User: Fold this.
Amino acid sequence: MSERVQKVLAARGLGSRREIEGWIERGEVQVNNRTVKLGDQVDEHDVIRVRGRIVRRPEHPHRWIVYHKPVGEICSRSDPEGRRPVFASLPRLKGQRWVAVGRLDLNTSGLLLFTTDGELANRLMHPSMALEREYAVRVLGEVPPATQDMLREGVELEDGAARFDSLEEQGGEGANHWFHVVVSEGRNRLVRRLWDAVGVTVSRLIRVRYGPVVLGHGLKTGAVRDLETREVAGLYEAADLPVPDSVRTRGRGGPRRDPRGKPRDQRPGKAAPAGKARTSRAAREDGWSSSPPKKPGKSSSPAGRGGSRGAKPAGGRPGGRSGGGGKPGGSRQR
Assistant:
């Protein structure tokens, strides 16, 4: 079966299709000692070279992992300022390359997905997939209901209107208040910018879910775990790709979700049933806790920095899709 050369190289984790198309345009890719052009196809018998080096077929099946990123690491492979890259903490591979599914900024911690399947990674990140990303957010001060409604309905940012698909209070103590928010697009620093647009300061931000994959209970900061088979299958379904033969879904493991992250019994655009906010420790030293809290958190009384501070409402849709899988936010200040 023949496929376009840029698709084959992307699937082997060498880079994004856009990057590889640039290599082809610059004459850096050869097939059977012939320089290829965009649109050329290859099959399993062809010998591909990139900058003179043979691209070998992977000897091992693809891998999929979750990394609990700590604050202070960058998502690039190298950094002129000498900051530690997340790739330095990942398992070493032979003949394959880790591809990150999305990014987290320097001061954000939590879930990062990595895979050796470049096509899967690129599909998961594509805006048309609209995969949900869920975050636990600690803010300074109380946030008035009117401000929360504004964030659900839409706020005008410098690169266009944006909103939280879901925003739920999760308790807090003193000046700190926790929320869980869900977005379904990957714009740069979107969660922080939305809060900033309404005059609220974010003091901590942790990604706890990407599509159907959650950070998981007990995964320490800086640690890695392999995805379970049901999680891998969920990612391929979310990306509208066939599940590899090597992946066999088995076992039970919690409520089934729509591949994009929504509970199957919840329709898009319909808010989740109202319930009491839950409170737990958002980021323990031994990892994210997804278990229900034993004691309710204390409510905070000091007035905070809530308010709109000149934020302009956007013509967004009222209400919001539920993020599903809401996890309790934390209350401990470090």
